[in-house]
Amino acid sequence: MTTWITICDTCKRPGWDQTDMQTTDGEALAALIEAAAETTPVQTRRVSCTMGCERACNVIVQGAGKIGYSMGTFEPLAEAAQGIVDYAALHHASETGQVPYREWPQAVKGHFVSRHLPTPPEA
User: What is the pTM of this model?
Assistant: First the structure.
């Protein structure tokens, strides 16, 4: 089954409007995540707004039949992107989507916002 990293490309960190940046922080983080995920079993997709604006930059790691996780308050840096991709690869390898805390990459610790239980199987 595919594990997805859904990346909000409209996220803007505080103070964004006071800079001369041509792209949003979300677009910058998305490009870094996409590059880091190229040789992994993880897929990426961009969406416009995950409604977590107060925690920009936001991503969601999810897979069918597995627990999914929302994470936020990332800076658009290569280290953050690599940590997100590394976590998603661990999620992919997990039968349930749960990854033991001791295995979490340092770059994602403190960034978890919520857990999403898989939808019940259809009757």
Answer: 0.93
